[in-house]
Design goal:
The protein has 68 residues and is α+β, with helices and mostly antiparallel strands. It has a single domain, classed as 2-Layer Sandwich (Double Stranded RNA Binding Domain). The chain is 26% helix and 21% strand. Strands 1-2-3 form a three-stranded antiparallel sheet, covered by helices on one side. A hairpin with a 5-residue loop joins β1 and β2. It is flat.
């Protein structure tokens, strides 16, 4: 199953990792650690709350003009 991971820098250092399909969130000192923690947390979530996802997620970015 292919899921989405969104990583952002944490204020206290390291990274916060979010899986938007399930809402699971975790953190880690490095990108690899944050992803590993997210993978584990999401797998545990899915054991309790199975999820049927069709197709690969589509992720994109968008910009807000600086003077907006």
């Amino acid at each position: 199953m292919q899921l989405t991971a969104v990583l952002t820098h944490a204020e206290e250092g390291g990274y916060v990792a979010l899986n938007p399909e399930t809402g699971t969130t975790t953190q880690g000192e490095t990108v690899d650690e944050a992803l590993a923690n997210l993978r584990e947390a999401t797998a545990l979530y899915l054991e309790e709350f199975p999820l049927k996802i069709g197709g690969a997620p589509l992720v994109t970015t968008f910009a807000i003009p600086e003077n907006a």
